[in-house]
Each structure stands twice: as structure tokens, then as C-alpha cells.
Amino acid sequence: MDERVDYQKKPASNPAETERTRNRKVFVPKVDIIETGDTMVMYADIPGADEKTIDVTLEKSVLTIRGSIVPQEFEGRSIAYAEYDVGDYERSFTVSDGVDRERIEAVVKNGVLKLILHKVPQVETKKIAVRTE
Amino acid sequence: MMDSVRELQRMQGEMNRVFSGIGQSLSREVPPVNAWVGEADVIVAAELPGVDPGKVEISVVGDTLTISGSREAEALKAGESYHRQERDFGRFSRTIQLPFHVEANKVEAKYARGLLKITLPRAEADKPRKIAVKYE
Fold first, then answer.
1. A128: closest CA of chain B, how far (Å)
2. What's the pLDDT tens digit per position in A4-53?
3. Fewest CB within 10 angstroms: B16, B50, B58, B130, which?
4. Quick check: is A8 in a domain?
5. Which of the 8 DSSP states describes residue A41?
6. Of B29, B39, B50, the CB nearest to A112
7. Number of domains making up chain A
8. What is the dihedral of CA A42, A46, A47, A48, to 10 degrees?
9. Is the CB of residue B88 less than 8 Å away from at least one CB of chain A?
10. Is the ipTM of this complex over 0.90?
11. Is residue A20 assigned to a domain?
12. Which CATH number describes the domain made up of B29-72+88-125?
């Protein structure tokens, strides 16, 4: 084998960045993805977002979660100290064909979005009997 | 009084940190808090997604507020495995210095959408008093 050829897989370069029309910060929510026997469960931390502002879409094989936040404001008080920033949440995942597109469940509770992706049962290979004539 | 120049510098630092890399985890204390100060009270909000409100303890002594508790991970059953594990779990505790003494028995805390909001009224004895200047 020619040693000059790099056989290592190359990481995909980032696709061209799209810009948002609204000038707001976007955060990438932290997620846990757990594989169970016949489902895949995803948990995403999106504090401040609720069921009215969360949007889950599946387009072709890209699953996108979006959440927006209404910044907190309190009348008669001014912000004196800030450690966390607010903005929208956005993150996309490529899902395999083995996911049942019609059965994706999404539940939000206490600022955590839980997505349940069901796997499509494996299609068994069909054997075709060959006869002699 | 708030030092506005320092605040701007702090915000600048924050911006640099945020823009230094999306998705990069910032080293920060848990839970991160924001605070709003008014004349009669201070509101402290903390980002605490996925926490059982019954497992959060709030204590107030004089002008310090302590938020502690634990965040538990979903237990894995047999045959389950992680593809990704990015969220943090475990015990947390932090103490925040408030701008004034507060009325400990009038402190209210609410938890919704993963945000903890604590309203701490200013102690009566700590409120600024107007002193009339007499003419001699």
C-alpha cells in the first residue's frame, strides 16, 4: 500500500453557516442519548423553555430540536449580576433509517425535553425458493 | 452602588467566553444564577433543569443565600447504554452574597420550566432611613 495516502477518515467540515433573522444568542443544549432495546431516548436540558416554545422537527434524516425563551424581567428591579445568559436552543441530529418516523414522542418537564425514538423492527430477509422446471 | 464600568468589563469577558466556541462547556459554578435588585427586595434565579423541587434546599442567614440539593440521573436498566452523556448530575451547593440583609421568614421560592426563582425581601432594619436635616 502506498504510505503517502491517508487512509484515515476525515471529519466532515461544517456546512455553510446559516444566519438567523433574529439577533439572539443560540445555545446548544446538552443531551444524553440512551439506547434501550427497541427505543432511543434523548434528554436535552433546555431550562426556561416550555411546551409552547419547543419545536421538534424531522426532515429527511435530520432531527432538530429548537426552543426559545422569554427573558425574565422584573418590574422595578434591575439586573445586578448575571452568570447565565438567555437565548434560543438549537441542535440537530442525524437519525438512521431504523427510526420509526411516525412514532417520535416528545415530552417536556422541568426544563428537560425527553424524546423517544422507536426503532423499526428489522425486516427479515425473505428467502426465495428456486424451483426447477 | 453598581460599578457600571466593571459590569461592562465583566459582560465583555462573558461575551468572549461565549463566542470562543459553541458547545464548549464553560467552567462555572452550579447552578448559574442571575440576580435582580430592587429597592424592597432581590430576586435570584437559578438554572436547574430536571431537578426534583423537593430535593432543593434554600437557606438564608443574614445577607447570604445558600442553594443546595442534588440532581439525579435517570437510572439505566439492564441492556441500556449511553450513546452520549453530556449532562451533569450530582450534588450542588453554592452560597451567594446578597446586597442587603433579608427577611428570612418571608423568602419565597418557585420552580418552573427548570428555573428556580427566589424572592428575598429586604429586612426592615436594613432599609435605608431618611434623616431630616434640621435647621439650627
1. 35
2. 556 666 666 555 566 677 777 889 999 999 998 889 999 999 999 988 88
3. B130
4. no
5. E
6. B50
7. 1
8. -130
9. yes
10. no
11. no
12. 2.60.40.790
